[in-house]
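Subject: Sanity check before I submit

Could someone independently write out the structure tokens for this chain? I want to compare against mine line by line before I put it in a report. The sequence has 188 residues.
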Amino acid sequence: MDTRTMRERMLAGELYIADDPGLARDAERAMALTHQLNTADPNDRSLRRELLTTLLGAFGEDSEIRPPFRCDYGYQTFIGARTFANFGLISLDVARVTVGDDVQVGPGVQLLTALHPVAAGPRRDKWEAAKPITIGHNVWLGGGAIVLPGVTIGDNTVVGAGAVVTRDLPPGVVAVGNPARVIRQVEP
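---
Independent answer below. Compare away.
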């Protein structure tokens, strides 16, 4: 018999039940911290930094996330140094979300790690899974871009506004559309 908790199963990338009481406590913690962040005095950068450092798995030096910000758990989101996220970032961090250094994130970007079964029975029974997202260094995600589970975006890549990234993107390219496709190399 599997004696692991649903949190352990989730962190291992296996099927888990999201409304497990332990995971619900983790999600409530994240909701409380994001509420504080999203309602804090916009001029109090030190409080916002303190809240993000408490909430996230890592929050790099000289990085900023403009509220509102939403996440599932927070501890699965890792933000590098000098990264800027504009208003409305959503990080559904059921699996690890890693954002590199010097990344620019436009408004309304969604980083979605959660997967739901296609089969009706397991979906009805509330089973879920997730795959990690990795955003390389010096990436620019245009406003409204959506990055789906399991995607890695290479260093120096630009993702156009509104693009839906369904598969890995190599370093140094410009990708646009739904699904996102590479249209050219980034100029040196």
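---
OP: Matches mine. For the report I'm noting this point. The chain is about 20% helix and 30% strand.
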